[in-house]
Design brief:
heterodimer, A: mainly alpha, Helicase, Ruva Protein, domain 3, B: alpha+beta, Tick-borne Encephalitis virus Glycoprotein, domain 1, 6-stranded antiparallel β-sheet
């Protein structure tokens, strides 16, 4: 069984990863990648929420030309962003800055993750302690390894149902 | 006909009011006749709304531009089949669509709930009627699709051309249905709480059933939306973290947590409070979605134009949340868990971690969506939070979920021994290592892609391992392989249906990972006769043909395309310009293979015969669309009633139905 599973699964992934590899090779120049990236982080000013990469609007297509021009002039990513911020304000960036009040946008998610982990641990601890203090509340609290997993899966729901009455 | 529709609307509003009051009264006074009367009152609403809908659609068909809504959303040139789309493409009409669809679904739900949960049913009906009452009130007092002008107009303004598309027939109806259907499990849960029966696990089966129906509708809506954006909107992407997309994703996330966590209550009698919290949060998020959609404060491409009624939705959301929490606190003592946790390492814990993670993603999404309002209020800084932010923040959290999806199902209920965990996770670990090595060898260096492929392979392997293990054990009892596979799935449909859904999620994840990190995009300027090469694809621009229609001018480019030495054929991307709306719509031409999509889309046609095309190679996108049917199949398997199981347990006393005189009320 082992081998019968390992080989097709790994082959599948090998297959999938070569697909990425094929596309990965440098079909587009570094500059084009930079242009595409910038198009993705600049907002089209008249079509809220859409990037200029996404929008069909004329302004978006003009902005794409400007981006292309600036990249070809050899401007850095930050300079180009600054250029558009200068013209339209920080609204034009789809990604908030990592300074000032915008910093909170970035900080809160990881803080929330940490908080969530603590909540889960505390909640599990409380539920666990409750079980310990009240003792095994079910007469069929068999030792974990006494019966196999399959058997447990099979019988416990039935016992659960009866004991629920 | 219009007048008839108006009368039907007013009558349905009154009936919804009646069912609300009488439903709650029936519950509180324990009156079976009252409850039955409220129920029949509720059943009468859908025919009435059907009549109103028929009146509106008829007005579209006969071009009755005296009706304001018809004049705003159609014109003489519109194909008649789009009368149905025009029906829900505007604000007022979509409210009518939602009411109609909800009245039908809730009618079916309450009929089933009534036979299973007679005590809960009158309250649940009361809550459903209240939801409907709200929508009908908004229709009648704020946005009536049947309102008429004094003088009929010559011609209508027409529908937004971006909406004249086949996708409009499927994506919006599913999405709206999904959002409103969250109200069904919500009503059942709140009904059980009000009836004082939230702590009994009797509402769980119905809550799960309608929760999963709602989840399926939401998922289908989201996938169809992504598919539509990809094939039509012509920018080569499928998800943009637009505020309205986010607000459809948030209830989906919360509902996903709910349909998992409800299983813990079903199996173990735990998480009783938690399930209530989850369903309340889900419904609040669905309402949040409607708020943002209807002229909320965040600009979005999806919004209904010029509608300030979003604030009404926000107020009602706040009220719903407040009242639900009050009921929850009031009935808090009925919701104690039957048992505690046997071990920290158990499936229960995995479920809890999964739930919290889903909620976290939903909250982070909410945070990003509303942060611009927050920053403007606090600091006077206007800003935009879009795709790059959400990708960076939510991407890693979602990968964590996929890892949990691989580990969770192999942990047994109650308590896991290290020996058994070790045994179950050995194979996934081996496969994951092989995948890591093969990915590295084939030149994948982006570490997010490596992590994603590793966690996906863990998930796939555990699911396959479970399926093979079960099939083998049945096979060893003498059944043939195919039969044992199907009888395995049939024997525990919620579980194996769930595994199939997990497989589809892995397919989605692989598609999303590959197409986000390894897509190739290039803008090329070509004139007829030019050939260009991107990767292994060679494409030759033959010519462009123009065609003028009553409402638009279409420019269709003709390409010949080769992949390596293989001739693929012609591809026809086009661009349509709608002069009246000053809108251009492009449609890409896609050549899909199992490995990658070759995508051609015109950006602009210039005067001098040159044209700008955007050419993309998107790897593994087909896997995302293939995941949709697999997901639906898995969900349906897991929803289908487990007859076999019932027959086995026929000698056990049933706990689903409380035996009461009211219980037999019909």
């Amino acid at each position: 069984m082992r081998l019968s599973l390992i080989s097709p699964l790994s082959l599948l992934f090998l297959f999938l990863s070569t697909a990425c590899f094929a596309a990965n090779s440098d079909f587009v120049s570094k500059e084009e990648k930079k242009i595409n990236h910038l198009n993705g982080v600049l907002m089209c000013p008249v079509c809220p929420g859409e990037s200029i990469d996404q929008s069909q609007n004329e302004i978006a297509s003009n902005m794409r030309m400007i981006v292309k021009g600036l990249v070809e002039e050899g401007k850095s990513e930050d300079e180009i962003k600054a250029y558009f911020v200068g013209r339209y304000g920080p609204v034009i960036l789809l990604e908030p800055a990592t300074s000032g009040i915008s910093l909170y946008a970035w900080i809160i998610p990881p803080v929330a993750l940490g908080f969530a982990i603590i909540v889960v641990i505390v909640a599990l601890g409380v539920m666990r302690r409750k079980q310990k203090s009240t003792g095994p509340d079910q007469p069929y609290n068999l030792r974990a390894e006494a019966i196999s997993i399959e058997e447990k899966e099979k019988y416990f729901p039935v016992i659960d149902r009866i004991s629920n009455e | 006909m219009v007048e008839l529709g108006q009368i039907a609307l007013i009558l349905s509003f009154m009936m919804a009011g009646y069912s609300t009051i009488v439903g709650f009264a029936g519950g509180m006074l324990n009156g079976r006749d009252l409850a039955a009367s409220a129920r029949w009152g509720f059943y009468s609403i859908s025919p009435l709304l059907l009549l109103a809908t028929a009146a509106l659609i008829y007005a579209f068909v006969i071009n009755d531009f005296s009706v304001k809504y018809v004049a705003e959303n159609s014109n003489i040139a519109m194909p008649k089949a789009y009368a149905w789309v025009a029906f829900y493409s505007g604000n007022a009409g979509s409210l009518l669509y939602i009411s109609l669809a909800f009245s039908i679904m809730a009618g079916i739900a309450i009929r089933i709930v009534n036979s299973k949960l007679p005590y809960t049913s009158p309250y649940a009906l009361g809550v459903m009627s209240m939801v409907l009452l709200f929508f009908l009130a908004v229709i009648l007092f704020l946005a009536n699709p049947l309102d008429q002008h004094q003088v009929p107009l010559e011609d209508g303004q027409g529908m937004n051309p971006l909406l004249i598309h086949f996708g409009m027939f499927i994506h919006p109806p599913f999405q709206m249905l999904g959002l409103i259907s969250v109200a069904l499990p919500f009503s059942i849960a709140i009904g059980a709480l009000l009836a004082g029966r939230g702590g009994r696990d009797e509402w769980v089966d119905q809550g799960r059933l309608w929760g999963m129906v709602s989840w399926l509708l939401l998922t289908t809506g989201l996938l169809l939306g992504a598919w539509w954006a990809y094939t039509i909107l012509g920018w080569g992407g499928y998800w943009a973290w637009d505020p309205v997309e986010n607000s459809a994703l948030m209830p989906w996330l919360a509902m996903t947590a709910f349909v998992h966590s409800i299983m813990v209550q079903k199996r173990r009698g735990m998480f009783r409070m938690w399930n209530m919290v989850l369903i309340i949060v889900s419904f609040a998020m669905a309402q949040m979605g409607m708020f943002i959609n209807r002229g909320g404060p965040v600009p979005s491409v999806h919004s209904f134009a010029e509608s300030t009624m979003g604030w009404v939705f926000l107020a009602v959301m706040a009220a719903t949340l407040f009242i639900s929490v009050a009921i929850f606190i009031f009935r808090y003592d009925t919701l104690k868990s039957r048992s505690g946790l046997d071990s920290i390492i158990s499936r229960e814990s995995a479920f809890l971690a999964q739930n919290v993670l889903f909620l976290l993603i939903a909250l982070v999404t909410l945070w990003g969506t509303i942060f611009p309002i927050f920053s403007e209020a606090v600091d006077d800084t206007t800003m935009t939070i879009g795709q790059p932010f959400f990708n960076k923040v939510n991407g890693p959290l979602m990968l964590l979920l996929i890892l949990l999806m691989g580990i969770g199902p192999v942990l047994p209920w109650r308590k896991a021994g290290w020996v058994s965990i070790n045994k179950m996770l050995r194979l996934p670990f081996v496969v994951a290592s092989l995948v890591l090595i093969s990915s590295l060898i084939s030149g994948i260096t982006q570490y997010w892609v490596l992590i994603s492929f590793v966690v996906c392979s863990v998930s796939i392997t555990t699911v396959c391992q479970e399926l093979i293990r079960g099939t083998r054990s049945r096979h060893s009892h003498g059944e043939n392989w195919v039969l044992s596979f199907f009888s395995l799935i049939g024997a525990n449909r919620p579980r194996y249906g769930g595994y199939i859904v997990h497989l589809s999620i892995v397919m989605l994840a692989i598609g999303i990972t590959a197409s986000s990190f390894y897509d190739v995009q290039k803008d090329v300027v070509m004139k007829p006769g030019d050939s260009e090469v991107l990767g292994k694809y060679t494409f030759k621009y033959i010519d462009v043909s123009e065609k003028t229609y009553s409402d638009r001018m279409e420019e269709t480019a003709k390409f010949q395309v080769w992949s390596g030495d293989n001739y693929i054929g012609y591809m026809y991307p086009y661009r349509a310009v709608y002069p009246e709306f000053q809108i251009a719509a492009t449609r890409g031409a896609i050549h899909s293979t199992i490995l990658e999509d070759f995508y051609l889309v015109p950006s602009e046609f210039q005067e001098d015969g040159q044209a700008v095309f955007r050419v993309l190679i998107n790897p593994l996108v087909l896997w995302m669309w293939a995941a949709g049917p697999v997901l639906i199949l898995g969900t349906l398997i897991s929803l289908s009633p487990n007859n076999r199981g019932h027959r086995k347990r026929v000698s056990l006393p049933s706990m689903d139905v409380d035996q009461s005189p009211l219980g037999r009320a019909k």
